[in-house]
Amino acid sequence: WADTLTVGASNTPHAEILEQAKPILAKQGIDLEIKPFQDYILPNTALAGHDIDANYFQHITYLNNFNAENGTHLVSVADVHYEPFGIYAGKSDSLDELADGAEVLVPNDVTNEARALLLLQDQGLLTLKEDAGLTATINDITENPKNLEFSELEAPQLPRALEDADIAIINMNFALEAKLDPKSAIYSEGSDSPYANIVAVREGDENRPELQKLMKALTSKEVKDFIEKKYGGSVKTVF
User: Fold this and answer.
1) Residue 197: which residues within 8 A CB-CB, separation 6 or more?
2) pTM of the entire structure?
3) pLDDT, tens digit (0-9, with 9 covering 90-100), for 101-143
4) In this structure, are residues 168 and 161 in contact, taking their beta carbons and an 8 Å threshold?
């Protein structure tokens, strides 16, 4: 007889990483069931609605924003890895050569759109209002010297639309899923990123013994070795 633990996850790399925790948990009498999701909303509504026990797909900034917008009470119990956000070339091969009025694709959810715009600001392509921070949107752009045209798309759609735009800023998990080589990104986020991917649970479940065991398994040496070998730096552990 085994306890079943159901965890929602993005296909790549989260579900692949969870697969490595399966045998570790099996030895402790826990059957880990991984439920893949294709978007960024359903894994949190499923968790809040008690359809799953935990999820692993998002960073803390996204979770905090989701709680604020939806009145949910989800909390982080572990930081596992972070995925450098990348700027990928479509019709334009470099940021220096971006034409006046070039089309730039960004994710349309609040936290990732801000993250994309902050990356462009780092490269001197635009200036944001000083207080815009981690909730910046295209409405907070104060200077846009190249008159960049922004298209906001659902994060999973960005790789598919890349060839029709000049550049796109894409979440690593969707870049990997679309078989884009992270090393081909024309610019990537630095290692001081505040966007560690977390395991989220319902408030009050933080000390459930099987969830504690999941944390230990996900931050084990076996999982760390797998991440380093499998993703070659495009996914970085934070434990």
Assistant:
1) 14, 56, 57, 58, 59, 79, 80, 81, 82, 83
2) 0.82
3) 999 999 999 889 999 999 999 999 999 999 998 889 999 999 9
4) yes
